[in-house]
Structures
1.
Amino acid sequence: MNGTSRCAGRVEVLHRGQWGTVCDIGWDMADAAVVCRELDCGEPVDTLGDAPFGPGPGPIWINRAMCSGSESTLKNCGADGWGKRRPCDTKDPGVICSEVRLVGGSRCSGMLEILHNQTWMSVCDAAFDQQDAEVVCRELDCGAPVQVLRAAAFDKGDAQMWTQEIHCTGNESQIHLCPTSPSQENNSSHYSVGLVCAG
């Protein structure tokens, strides 16, 4: 809630038909990873304390989340005090998810996909360059780019092709902060770009 997109904001959970918040005690990147996965928003970029997205209404449903980071939903994580309304001087944690992912390889290598209008789309290799790769690898906390895989490295697969060209300077913290322009290429000849990051 209250973020710039559905993949960034204050963490809230629905429990017994009512939306409530999470106590920020012990809240970490493993917990954030589960939230990003559950929302289909890519990898966690940051987890923020001190209620950066404002305080939430309703009860504190999760007193202390204890996620390993591999769970598919927050409700599958262990918790100290699920719905027990224990006292918590909470600051309602916020999460920022990447809205970008690498698929078909590891967390730090694969075909690049970007979340656009709630749909994961592949990125055309035609205008993707080293500066764009630097932003993606940094955003995913995967170190520096090792290789940009073009043309036949990956075919279009099942994902729809994103019709924008990305123009990063290389210094942006997230790929969605880079300027874009409509693609000048013929869509029928597009291949999806693949990326290998050092991490």
2.
Amino acid sequence: MSSRGTRYWNSGAIPLIAPDVLGNIISSASDLAVVITDEGQILSVLINPDHRSFGRLEHWEGGNVRDFLTIESVEKLDRRLEAFHASQPTGPSIELNHTDNSIEFPIRYTFHRIGPDGAVLMLGRDLRPIAEMQQQLVKAQAALERDYEMQREFDTRFRVLMETTSEPIIFVAMSSGRITDINKAAANLLGGTRGDLVGSAIAQEFDGRRRGEFMESLTNIAVSDTKIPLQLQARRSKRQLKVLPTAFRAAGERLLLCRLDLAEEGAVVADEMSMHLLGFYEHGADAIVFTNASGTILSANDSFLNMLDAANVASVKGKPLGDFLARGAVDSKVLIENASRTGQMRMYATKLIGTYDSQTSVEISATYLEDQAHPAFAFSIRDASRVEAVRVPGVGVSDDAVRSVMELVGSAALKDIVAETTDVVEKMCIETAVELTSNNRVAAAEMLGLSRQSLYVKLRKYGLLVKDPDA
């Protein structure tokens, strides 16, 4: 190779490289490059310009490399330098932990002789990214171990609970209809063992049941508001059993938790009564509505939906019953207050407002369902539009009032007769409102669309204040 650069390459030889260019090559080829003497004195430090996380290390130059290493790394460096100077320059790389201003960072070094004076070039790669990845892997492995131990703990709790509880329980997959798990109490009622029953179709454990029909019955009970157990006979034990399913989802799979119980004779009678009441509620001709204490609809049957022309129960559930009555909150308040006070209210006449503003004359009976925790009201609503003409009025016009009007004919002008008739009708309406509201003046005023002061004026005018117990 010529010093003038006439030949740059010959038989694999390396060309002459200018010192400043060589420094750039070394700093780019490694993350950290350190040149030391045989004794370990640092002659030069080069940092990769794209890797500035080390900070400034110029203060290393002139010092001993051992001053910037941890104790265990000093021993590793001494052994490697000893082997390096003993004609083993191509030994394996070593990992050294540097410490500088209480900050530690690991570097993997390879050693290279660069001159006759014994100078050694240490080319290093930063191991912090690898260390961080290793720490993340360790943390992930630890998290998996914790999850596994937690899963084992919950599985153990579940097994202990299933085997120690006296309540017979079966878990059924809704997609296949097969038993996924069953406890000993349930297996005894069915007349089998857990090993025989797990994995078998639950429908075949009961007499006269097909899989599709049976799973449909269980699903309908699980999603319905009224939980009525299914009466069945076990195929193996021949016992009469009740099955009450509950639907839930776990890990994306839909399951049924089925609780079993013996069907006692008294319970059968009670269940028959419940079934009859449920059938009357679902298929009865009269509309039936259940509300809470504030008049919000909790449930309603199909007859009520037909009267309103409502699409489904979701369109009325959660709304005030007064929204569907002609006088709105006034009707609802009269019904609820009277039913709360006396236990029930019968034959309250009003109109039902449909979805498309249609009006139907109805008679409503209200019953208070006393429950300290969850008081409720049951309303039976009957279509009275066909018999409205023959309904007996709550308050009739008195004979004296009619006679006084008739006596005016021929002796008074028509406008005077009409004025007298208006007073008679007005008195009749006020008496009816007072009677319907059980002498509740505030509710009567709302029903008539009057202010409370105007109602008292008219009551005084027609001599009706004597009905006030406080008057």
